[in-house]
């Protein structure tokens, strides 16, 4: 089995890096977050606690 030259390894690395970056960008930009239309859901509900020392 012939050995790969360093230039071939480098080109293989570049190719896989480009594929990885493109795959991540496609996943990132294809995601659409759900927009909450109700304002009351966006507010954080907090309970007031009365501490008795």
Major sheet summary line: none
Mean pLDDT: 82
> Considering DSSP H and I runs of 4 or more, what fraction of the residues is helical?
40-55%
Report the count of strand segments.
0
Structural class, from secondary structure content? mainly alpha
Give an overview in words.
The protein is an all-alpha fold and 53 residues long. The chain has helices at 6-30, 39-42. 0% of the residues are buried. The model has no long low-confidence stretch (mean pLDDT 82). One of its GO terms (molecular function) is proton transmembrane transporter activity.
Give descriptors for this structure:
53 residues; mainly alpha
Short description:
This protein is mainly alpha-helical. The chain contains two helices and no strands.
Question: Secondary structure elements and their pairing?
Answer:
Layout: H1 6-30, H2 39-42
């Amino acid at each position: 089995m012939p050995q790969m030259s360093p230039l071939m390894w480098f080109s293989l690395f570049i190719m896989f890096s480009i594929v990885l970056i493109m795959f991540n960008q496609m996943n990132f930009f294809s995601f659409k977050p759900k927009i909450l239309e109700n304002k009351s859901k966006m507010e954080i509900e907090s309970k007031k606690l009365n501490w008795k020392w």
